[in-house]
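Sample intake sheet
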Amino acid sequence: MDSYMEYLVKKEVTGKDKAVRVLCIAVIALVALAGVFVLQIFIVVALILALIYRYFIYPLTDLEYEYLYCDKQITVSKIMAREKRKDVAVYDLEKIELLVPANSYRLADYNKRDLNVVDYWSLDPAEDHIPYALIYEGKSKILLDLPADFVKIVQNNAPRKVFFD
């Protein structure tokens, strides 16, 4: 019998995300005001811009990550604005080289390599909150926001690849 676990974490809203939201809303408001005082067509343009913001821009600034361990695979899904779900990556346990905290000494050799870094971390500002780094096929370093019990389940299935140091 294989283990199963899922974990959901909300990504912190960055200053860049807030700036994009404020800028979009300000542009929409200015175009709507132009519609009231200048030409009625600007109101239609403002409605179109509002729809673009609602369905394309806002979901990219309101993210949650779901980590799922099942059948010796770690699946990462991105949930945008609590509505749209997209599986972004599947990591096979046999192809994982290492899973350790991102500040582990075991990453010293990998930090010298030119690895593709993929970030699925929540950006939690707590000092004691450290992401886990997953080295995949020697080509990628993936940052994940995993709890200790999730990592323990992975360690039970791959004890020589997972460390808590």
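Comment: Residues 15-37 form the longest helix (23 residues). The radius of gyration is 21 Å.
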